[in-house]
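Give me the fold.
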Amino acid sequence: MNARTATYANTLEHLLDARSAEGLWTGRLSSSPLATAVAITALHIADSQRWAEAIQKGLGWLAAHQNPDGGWGDTENRDPSNLSTTLLSLAALSAVDLSGQFSKHTRKALRWLEDELKCKDKADLAKAVYAAYGEDRTFAVPILTHCTLAGLFQDTPHPWRHVKPLPFELAQLPRGLYRAVRLTVVSYALPALIAVGQAKFHFDPPANPLLRCLRRAACGPTLTMLRSLQPSNGGFLEAPPLTAFVTMSLAAIGQVQHPVAQKGLAFLIASQRPDGSWPIDTTLSTWLTTHAAKILAADHLTEHERNTLTETLLDQQYKTPHPYTGAAPGGWGWSHLPGAVPDADDTAGALVALHRLNPQRDAVRQAVAAGLTWLLNLQNADGGIPTFCRGWGQLEFDRSCADITAHALEAFTLWNNEVLPALQSRIHRAIPRALRFLYAHQRPDGAWLPLWFGNPHTPDKTNPVYGTARVLMGLTKMDRCAYPILDAMIPPAAAYLLGRQRPDGSWDGIEHTALAVTALASAQNAKTDAVEAGLNWLVQHTHQGTCLPPAAIGLYFAKLWYTEDLYPVLFTLAALQAAAS
């Protein structure tokens, strides 16, 4: 067995062993200092005695994962310290550590903030947070609410003046009007808009009497709405940070017994890991499973396994409108758990996986028609595909994005000739619009930027290698004769990736190298020597598929990084397959 064959066999074994008893790939998201900090504070504000054991375990983990410079990064792997995570961790330790057990950790964190930001006072900290997130208050306001509730600003004259108000009363409006009123939070953040907005109102009501009356009248109805948004297990978006922000806000305003707060607390306790930490999200099981299905369907699954996996994916498709985002039926979310919501990337992934698994089954064709219709209805006026909701274009995480648009194009292309004429006609109209969007958003150097992936080690934190590779993978599945615009996009994209290859054959780590190899191997006229060099690097640096450490390329919320253990496994296998074919 040569080295490349051994690498494939070992990586394949790793992937097959990672399958759960239910037949899913649940993976493992990195533990998060940020999630751990806000969960600790939420439990402390709600009932510090009842949750003392969970709080203490969380504090111990948080202290153990402080960086030597005094700050905290976004994962358990000593990532570079950053403002948000350090500030939230400092606030949690300050609020909860009444005995002074972790005082040396708080002193180090304060020094890091002072050295990094050159802050003269606490007001400068708040300004730095707002500057980091710009117009988007989705994360800035919850961060500063957490800090205020934790007492970090208690020595300032008016602690709550650092927290900007959120217009939670607008949550009562029909969803179609959210863009018109220019909400300063993204579409998936309505729970934070309501709960954090009410906390600000409770402690610091507006001086304007009309606005004060309006918001007071909106408290009850929006809490009722919040309850309707909460999934059965209590975890908004399966995310401990979002759930903790909501829970601590409700507990702080005397609503700890409210059903939303109680279910939120139950979710936080259930999602704490044995070592005391919390991840940023429970699992990306659907996303990982569809990736695995694409790789395994042809050669590594029995007919029974393909049928079982098909049924699993069909069961995960949303059959009714989603209460959280109001999304129509037909989409898939990133997880099999109740806190997920339908999104374009996972819907496209499920459609591609079903084509590999069982394209001829009637039930599959019905589900595919619903999924394709869902994606088509999501297409924005600019031709691109957003993540969750059509038309929310004000803030970055609601805009059309290149990698998701290309993923949708791959799904459209695969199923185009196998659907009814009416749906086929819609696809024929949508594809040129999506291609024009990609053409308009390709950079002069040939690259595209992704939305939900980045690189914390680049100066601007963007990840053009990931974005370009993903778009190129989608475009190379299409007929270049039918769509001449592809000839204007594919060669520059391939040239960009070739230009970013390092002398040793890599592209900055396992995930990036594997993605670039996959994309270049699928592109016409790709330089085989570049692909070969990338494969050789993967063989060597994964120790023939036996060592596959993940890197922080995932981007969750705004500027919050994560790793997923299965990304290097899935991406490496895909690269080896693409090169072999």
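DSSP finds 22 helices and two strands in the chain.
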